[in-house]
TrEMBL record:
Protein origin, superkingdom: Bacteria
Leader sequence residues: 1-22
Ranges of residues in domain Cytochrome c: 38-135
UniProt xrefs under InterPro entries: C-typ_cyt_methanol_metab-rel, Cyt_c-like_dom, Cyt_c-like_dom_sf
Protein name as annotated: C-type cytochrome, methanol metabolism-related
An annotated Gene Ontology molecular function: electron transfer activity
Species of origin: Limobrevibacterium gyesilva
């Protein structure tokens, strides 16, 4: 990854961690929208589900990116596996900043019974360029707003999402 992209991702993480809540994900209600990304009252990315079950594009893209990058360890739909915890449960207590820090920097839990290690993914564009979408999807799963499986109805890709994706992926 070019140094400028790595620096940009790191700065984005610092800004987002500083602005994030410290008491878990909080109220997921969408208050505002910026370029197709919904935000809660604290400015954290969140999901938006229509009355017909249609999800916002970030929730849909989050499912796709989660399935490609996280499912192998954390299991289908964020429910956990024999060697990685349920992210649906973890998202009930993780703030946005804690989520970003864990994904970027990794985590190591060692006990007498087991050693659990999540690698830091800060250099993985397939994760970090889509970190908000993955967060939104998992937040919706943790809130029981997004059911298991691929969302069948979703908004179209917002132009701002496509621009950010192209800039990040190069």
């Amino acid at each position: 990854m070019p140094p400028t992209v790595t620096k940009a991702i790191f700065l984005l993480l610092l800004v987002n961690v500083a602005a994030a809540r410290a008491d878990g994900a909080g109220d997921p209600a969408a208050i505002t929208s910026e370029g197709g990304k919904y935000l809660d009252k604290d400015g954290n990315p969140t999901f938006k589900i229509g009355p017909d079950g249609k999800v916002d594009y970030y929730s849909y893209a989050g499912f796709v990116r989660y399935s490609a990058n996280c499912l192998a360890c954390h299991g289908p739909d964020g429910l956990g596996s024999t060697y990685a915890p349920s992210l649906v449960d973890a998202m009930k207590r993780l703030s946005y900043g804690d989520f970003l820090a864990t994904v970027a920097g990794g985590k190591r839990d060692v006990s007498t019974a087991q050693t659990l290690v999540m690698p830091g993914l800060a250099e993985n564009k397939n994760v970090m360029c889509y970190i908000d979408a993955i967060y939104v999807y998992l937040r919706g799963r943790a809130d029981d707003a997004i059911p298991r499986g691929r969302p069948s109805l979703h908004d179209d890709k917002p132009p701002a999402y496509a621009i950010a994706e192209n800039e990040c992926m190069g």
